[in-house]
């Protein structure tokens, strides 16, 4: 809101940033009293139990109330029916520690892969008691291990289940988007990659200057004054800071060496300290951040931010990954991107927004956990099940910005948001809380002479 | 618009005379201008001085979204053409030389940003009232509360394990600290000392008496609580010192110092003791000032715990140790003592002084006695004072636990644990030796020291090997 001060020429207009109310709903992602001794089978069991009602309801909705829902054990050959269970994708190339050990003797060196899919991947449906292999109208590369699905079809003579149609649970219930008079924005940012060789230090500084109203003209200031919140979606530190080298060296050679994360954290603290006095910031943990590695990741400990933590509990918060919150009533849910990046490796969908849509429809944040994505061995609950449909469903650290609006049958309207890694694109995403419109904001140094060296990220 | 002209002059000074990269942030900061005024000033300046090179900030919209870029003046038009809609354009910086790459622009403001940090946006065009920083007072309060917690912890542990130590330690530390505080004095006195042993001894007596009294009074005054508060800080101080300035300490401990410890002691304590009492309130400071005593004894050790033990032991000794034995032994070590024993002596000094306190009759003790004495003292302690103290060791242990958020926290605490049987052995050996001929006893001290050192060294070496093998 512009505040006029004096006459036009001498008195530049200033704007006031309004505050926002943030309600952290991530309690369920908090793990205390870890017991890593449990078996992972429990999480699948719990997941299928919790999802059973929803998936059956979805099946009835899709194929009519008279559809024959059967247990896997009861199906008869040639009888058309609907079965419900957990998908499992048998993948030839899926990395397996057992395989690695046995292969050591043959000295087969596996080429590094970005995807582990192959032509021979097969789908299997697991019920509570048994499993059945699947054929028919289904693309294995668009399905993911761990998703709960309902399948319509019949068992053929070969003992396989021939699929005619399949259904996910669909979008969960959604609270209505609150009515707000003024436009408000949330800035999504991820993958700052501090400590990386390609670190975009200056671009980060430009971003900060822009957000706090230093850079740009009056129009920019007006826009930025509407940014009520900043979400840093993980990987604030670069993967390079996780230097494992020192662990393999003799201690006497490295005892004086400082972990590279220390400097990187200081730099991050430096940037955040400029930001937190002027806008509220949530810092999510990410794959390379100094916290636990498996999902759900704990918040970074505030003591690592020596100066920014002065604003701890005021405008500076470190939060878990996944993160769920309400900002002025707008429901946000998202991760730092591990779930989506992992699914990219085990399927051939490369559009992040599509994957986001898929996971939301499957009502599960990370179906591939615990199969290929590390996760805590829950045995009583599965916190990754999405109970409430968010308004903004995001994932960080993607190759590029993309977004989509997903609409559900019950008037749900969700913004699917793929937040690019800043270190790759030097851009952030601005989301309008009122309309759920979003736009990318990129920060570039156009230095033509050195374009070859500096390179604009898009090229 | 006189102001404006003066601003321009100021910018001109920065650019032309000081040859700086002048960014809009710098102008805003130096002239305390709102950010948009600063940009105007720069723009004006750039208009009037065509010779300078200008870097522009350009914001605009493209099909992809908003775009914020830094552009050199030469590229400005081209860059504008690439935008669908130019939102704003203003100079980012003005400088004499042409920049080959943009990084200097970042470094130019880095220091300024670093110092202003929280206030870096105070001149910006957007105000925000929603943030609340902790004030210095609050931070101090939190720190204090943290300290209290740790202090309480240590109190509990010490009380539980050995009340004796709890009460005595502070006194012993004081002794040590006083030693160090006055070290420079030592040296000077040492040079004098050789001949006037008797005098010095008398002095010692006096001083020791004074010390005793003082300690007593201190104890009374302080009560357990105060002592406990001191203790942790003292420990920390030790540890830190040990790590920080081993070399400084070495430098101070010249060979001379080694030779005449007991004598030196007395003057020091006279002087230092009262000062300590005065400074009691600021024990930390006191300790910080005084060089780390332990340092000298065992070089760069991680053996702090051991040292601790030793330093503890001597105190009880005051009451118990028989003087007669000490004297004969004392002389020999002096002659024999190479570097190692000398180092030991440091610690011994204190011990010897304490032993002297106990026996006022002895005047034979020369500079020498300290080194053998300490050992004796230890052994004596082990036997007489009772297993508990002797077998206890203070060790810096790290505890890892979860806080309520489930984060793992690691905290280092001093804990008392009973010594392993290995460690006890050497002590008992030395006892036997002590009982025997004085010569033996003389030898024993150094071997003990050596073994202690060896143990540590070896442990570290072993650690190295195991590490490697595992890697």
TrEMBL record, chain A:
GO terms for cellular component: delta DNA polymerase complex. GO terms for biological process: DNA strand elongation involved in DNA replication. It comes from Phallusia mammillata. Keywords: DNA replication, Nucleus. This is DNA polymerase delta subunit 2. InterPro entries: DNA_pol_a/d/e_bsu (IPR007185), DNA_pol_D_N (IPR040663), DNA_pol_delta/II_ssu (IPR024826), PolD2_C (IPR041863). Residues 186-402 form the DNA polymerase alpha/delta/epsilon subunit B domain. The keyword Nucleus applies. GO terms for molecular function: DNA binding. The gene is Pold2.
From TrEMBL, chain B:
This is DNA polymerase delta subunit 3. Its main location: nucleus. It comes from the Eukaryota. Coiled coil: none annotated. One of its GO terms (molecular function) is DNA-directed DNA polymerase activity. The gene is Pold3. Residues 155-455 are annotated as: Disordered. Gene3D superfamilies: DNA polymerase delta, p66 (Cdc27) subunit, wHTH domain. Residues 199-221, 400-416 have a biased composition (Basic and acidic residues). PANTHER family: DNA POLYMERASE DELTA SUBUNIT 3. Keywords: DNA replication, Nucleus. One of its GO terms (cellular component) is delta DNA polymerase complex. The keyword Transport does not apply. Residues 155-165, 187-198, 266-275 have a biased composition (Polar residues). Pfam families: CDC27. It comes from Phallusia mammillata. It is found in: Nucleus.
